[in-house]
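W.,

You were right to be curious about this one. When I first looked at the sequence I had no strong expectations either way, so I just let the prediction run and decided to look at it fresh. Below is the sequence, 284 residues in total, followed by the output.
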Amino acid sequence: MLLADAISPPVRLHTLLTGFQTDGLSLVALAIELGLALWYVTAVRRLAKRGRRWSRWRTASFLGGTLLVVIAVQSGLAAYDDQVFAVHVIQHLLLMNFAPILYALSAPVTLALQASERKTQQGLLKILHHPVVEFLTNPVFVVIVTYGTMLVYFLTSFYNFSLEHPLVHDLTHLHFLVSGCLFWWLVVGRDPSRWRLSYPAKLGILAVGIPVTAVLGVSLTGAQVSIAPLFHSVADTQRGGSILWIVGELTTFAAMAVIVYQWMRFEEREAVRADRLLDAETQV
């Protein structure tokens, strides 16, 4: 009975609301997150002093993304991430999907370029065009890393290994966030990049993720053995697999719908532009 209680314990609302992480690494991470949020707001104000407007939606997106990261790794949710697999999956989705989507929509690189002094702008442009950055943001590399991370992490013994080694577990959180940001910057990002994908290419990248998520969902939902026997029950493994499968696929289809809508709007604008050019040539 004691072993059963220790594996995949029930999630309690009190712990979710009050179980904030106060270890040194969590506090350092929180300071960095709040510092980035402060930088973003300060940059927006600096831009306003120059008489230039910045979208409130972009500001809200960045602050919202930061809030999701805090919830994922510093709130009471994180108190269960090594005990309840379903909670860990929610944390994974926050770090790899939802927070990165909001960060990508907030266009922080564009803000930095517009709000910085000339010397800083030149430095940022050199970084953006550095061969290492171009390699790390290459669509092929990003897709392999993103989908490969999901398959290796959930379908090998690495997940159990990360639970047994807290530092590795914390580093996986950072990896989820970085790989998620690289992926969604390609798909929905508004920042300048060496790689500008067409709408069909964006849809293709998202389409690759559908079978990947399905494989994960089927493997975890139908699991007969716990993904980490000393930490999670079989039922918890199956429940987490269902959440990962359903929410992951819904996120992909929602993103595809948005891209199709953007593609249609783009084609409409191009048609209007072509009509204007044709009218101008006719009048001449």
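Here's what jumped out at me. The two ends are 88 Å apart (CA to CA). And, maybe more interesting for your project: The mean pLDDT is 90.

Coffee later to discuss?

I.
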